[in-house]
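Entry:
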Amino acid sequence: MMHRTENLSKSTRVAILSTAFFVSLLLLLLALWVCNYCINAEAHARYVGVTNVASEKIAKTISGMEMNAMNVFDEVQKHMDSPEAVVDALMSKTSLNPDVRGYFAAFEPEYFPEKGRWYEPYVHQTDSTHEFEITQVGSARHNYTQSDWYMKAKELKASFWSDPYYYYDGTSISGHYCTFVEPIYNAEGKLACVCGADMTFEWLAKELEQIDLESKQDDLLNLYVFNQEQDFYTVVLNGDGSCLAYPEGQKVAIDDEDVLKDLKQRKSGFKKMTINGENATVYYGPIRNINWVTAVIVPAYEVQKPILMIGLTLFIVMLLGMIIIYKHL
């Protein structure tokens, strides 16, 4: 056999080597195509799952906040005999949730005549000690009866979450808020006040950080070497696409019309787009009972990384095969 191989002409050797190379290259490309399809399908299922889990965890946290706030509002409804009783009711449940910045009861004009036209006691945390103090924030300057949340509460006659807003009065209370609101009625069935629990978005940023950490450390997601050290992050969007909470330095701006349409209709989906100058896939889904959306941002290289590793491995194997064939010609 060695004698016959040595007698092969140069053109025959080149033909055999060329044929082997092109067949190997074809198999390599086919293998990469199959791997690319499978890896993208796996990544899609994985990040849809990550998005759903994040949405559910945030929804559970929000539900807990709602239950705690309802306990406070129930106390207010039971103690509307006097302004002092209302304040005591607000103060009695402040320890229920440390993520609540403050509780308020905004009364109908002149509900307590001795307090004047506007009476809105606000029991809130201070920046320095995180203890609660009382501030009367209702005034002609802050006519809460003209606020969107107050008018919406009168219209809906049910609890709801307000749209995010910025409140400023020159004090430590100023800041970005979202408020859980409920109208409170007296024994005669007339509106007495609108109660609210104010939350800043600090708790949500911490929640996202913990969710990402748990997802990246999940044993099943890290079962295979190609999936380890995943580089994705989770943000929370408002229904209009604006970013409410995000990891430090990772604020996301969504202006894609198709995605914005899905957000308004509370649909789940995904879209490849440029995020902060990088190609990425955005997976998004609504959060129960609130007009917010969870979005998981997956950089393109995160999905391409295992494909490149597989491609490099197969290419090296192909080259070794070509060397072996060449040496035996």
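The chain is about 45% helix and 25% strand.
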